[in-house]
Amino acid sequence: MCTLEKTANNIFVLTLTGDNEHRLNPALIGSILSALHEAKAQATSGSVLITTSRGKFFSNGLDLAWAHAAGSKPKAIERLTHMVKLFKPVVAELISLPMPTIAAVNGHAAAAGMVLALSHDYVYMKRDRGVLYMSEVDIGLTLPDYLTALFRAKIGSPSARRDVLLRGAKVRGDEAVRMGIVEGVHDNEERLNEATMRHGIQLASRKWNGEVYKKIRKSLYPELCVVLGLGDAKVIAKL
Q1: Which residues, given as ranges, of the chain have pLDDT below 50?
Q2: What is the pLDDT, as a whole number, of residue 234?
């Protein structure tokens, strides 16, 4: 599951709790979505979201074990399809959240776990532990349209997208910086948390209008927003 806490600096901290792989099954997806709805409902000018986790994993992707537990291949495919559909609103909510967002990736982020991280405005990693990894090409799964649209929106280099999606590259922190996927890497969890909180406080101090911020973000990713069903961006004037 996950928790949501709000600091005195107007920063929401969403934490994937427990010392497990944070596999994205219907229960965890629902918990994350509820936390995002809560943050949006409480948002004021200058709010910021930081998403992090406990344990070795940021998130190891969709819960394939839950899918296979259905007992047959058709039922497993049905469960997997169900999770893919459930996860789409999480990506949509992050892309349309009325505040800056930061992912503090303090462990492995694989498949949908990497997608969760990339759905934020800024991504930071640990240097000593954790990789970004899209495992689908290795395990024989195709990608839904909203995931490929997200990668086209968030990773500018065609060669970087190729290596991540078609080569199944396991990207560590320093390489992720060189590829333009993450903002920076830090030597340990303490420094990672300090850096993301410091960045969050800097963003919060600007006290931006969240609705304006959201509209500008959406205008940066028109293809992604269409696929996510977020509609067209409209101009908001500050009167």
Answers
A1: 233, 235-239
A2: 52
The CA distance from 160 to 171, in Å, is: 10
Other C-beta atoms within 10 Å of 7: how many?
14
Return the SS3 of 110. strand
Q: What angle do CA 153, 62, 90 make, to 5 degrees?
A: 50
**Residues 224, 183: Cα–Cα separation, whole Å:** 21
Parallel, antiparallel, or unpaired: how do β-strands 132-133 and 108-110 relate? parallel
Region of 142 please: left (phi>0), alpha (psi -120 to 50) or beta: beta
- Nearest by Cα to 183 from 193, 171, 195: 195
- Name which of 238, 236, 215, 232 is nearest 95 in CA terms: 215
What is the pTM for the complete model shown? 0.94
What is the model's pLDDT at position 232?
59
Whether the CB-CB separation of 89 and 33 falls below 8 Å is answered with yes
- The model's pLDDT over 60-117, given as tens digits with 9 standing for 90+, comes to 999 999 999 999 999 999 999 999 999 999 999 999 999 999 999 999 999 999 999 9
The burial class, CB within 10 Å (0-12 / 13-18 / 19+), for 87 is: buried
Return the biggest CA–CA distance within the chain: 59
Instruction: State the Cα–Cα distance between residues 56 and 229, nearest whole angstrom.
Output: 34
Within a 10 A sphere around the Cβ of 124, how many other Cβ atoms? 27
Q: What angle (nearest 5°) sits at the alpha carbon of residue 172, between those of residues 51 and 161?
A: 85
Residue range 208-218, pLDDT digits in tens: 999 999 999 99
